[in-house]
Amino acid sequence: MRIFLKSIPMLILGVVLFVPNVFAANSVTRLDGASRYEVAVNVSKQGWSSASTVVVANGTAYADVLTAAPLAYKYNAPILLTESSKLTKPTKNRISQLKPSKVIVIGGSISVSNNVVSEIKNLGVSTVERIGGRSRYEVAQNISKKLSSNSKAVIANGTAYADSLAIGSYAARNGIPILLTTAGSIPEPTKNAMSSKGTTSTIVVGGEISVSKSVYSQLPSPTRIGGNSRFEVAANIAKKYYSSSKAAFVSNGYQYADALAGSVLAAKQNRPMLFTDAGSLPTATRAVIGSNSKNTFTVLGGTISVTTNVVNQLKNVIVGKKVFVDAGHGGYDSGAVGNGLKEKDVNLAVAKIVNSKLSAGGAIPVMARSTDVFLELSERVAKAKSNNANLFVSIHANSASPAATGTETYYYTKYEADNSKRLATEIQNRLYKALNTQNRGVKIGNFHVIRESTMPSSLVELAFISNVNDASKLKSALYQEKAAQAIYEGIIGYY
Ligand SMILES: [Zn+2]
């Protein structure tokens, strides 16, 4: 990959790595802000024009605040953030606008100082209630006491924030308390909370590193929602509880403040919280978006937390779609040979650029081969199937008499005939224009990979290796890039 990218001129690299806005189709709303305090204010503006209760939590230390979402939801209260020692200006202004009669402060006086409590009272709030505790576990227990009775409890690791924030919206919406544990043993306040709440079943969030088998086995009727990363845990929660929802919240998975502030709004809208890296959507997040066909996103935070590139990926209709990119031939099978070219090399070069574009665009591309190796046709079909590919695109170059010239794209009628034809048409109509070749059209072709693939599939013949003019284009990095762009845009056109 690195070696390959080095060989492309910088101008082309730019095109490969950034998603053009022109394909925007999914709906993305960003709740922005210059700071986490402003983001929380903007979340509250989105969900509340007035509020009789507001929850205030520490914006710089997560220990006490992880379990606040169900409480805030119960009182239909936005969560605003504060520094420990003083109320930040955006938070102060927002409390003045909302004019709540009550503010609930989360955590002990180390999390939110008595000075902040005084400042809130000075804004004319008649009741300021603190829900504290000697530890995060006790804070969680004390929050659970404020919730209505529920036979279920969520159990998450209290020394990290991602898992409890991923489940926050679901727990809040369903009035389920979030209780905290260490990986290896259940803290006393959590045991006490379960016994006083009469917990008969538990939802354990996170893998065995977060909540060990030993802890799991001590919990009442546990069900685990695990994952290999915070992104996967959040994706698995979304898969389990929100598979029919087309909408989701997206926040940076390595910062807790935006997700915390957003959790109550997500609960009000009955939407899951997904996590992202700042620069690009992680595969697990893409996968759940693609498999649930999500198309409406609320992004939490500014462009440093969630870059424009992530927003463009979310907007892109191919986000999360699994596209099998099949570079024809390989290894001892050179394919067509002529004019100094081997077809297998041309196919692979174009396939790699298509792969990069799909990946940068938010899709989940799978390459049949990424090196010069031989694969049986049946292996290619099997690989696409085992990867649950949504689309199959096979890339070839043509050969015939020296006079034969032009671009053509094939589909077959055995599976997904209409969709395959549509895919072939979307690609063909862009490809011959991009290569400035003769348009030989969309055709039915009885080729193994498009005959046996059960998903919509098409096979492109870029141009003729056996024709001098066509071959000169196939040789050129610029035309390879143009061809890949046309195929990429054809896939987007299909969706
Ligand atoms: Zn071929």
Automatic annotation (TrEMBL):
GO molecular function terms attached to this record: N-acetylmuramoyl-L-alanine amidase activity
Domain MurNAc-LAA: 381-492
Annotated SMART domains: Ami_3
Keyword field contains Transferase: no
Key words of the record: Hydrolase, Signal
Signal peptide stretch: 1-24
SUPFAM superfamilies xrefs: Zn-dependent exopeptidases
Taxonomic source organism: Bacillus spizizenii (strain DSM 15029 / JCM 12233 / NBRC 101239 / NRRL B-23049 / TU-B-10)
Known EC number: 3.5.1.28
GO biological process, one term: peptidoglycan catabolic process
Protein name, entry field: N-acetylmuramoyl-L-alanine amidase CwlB
Top-level taxon of the source organism: Bacteria
Pfam families, A to Z: Amidase_3, CW_binding_2
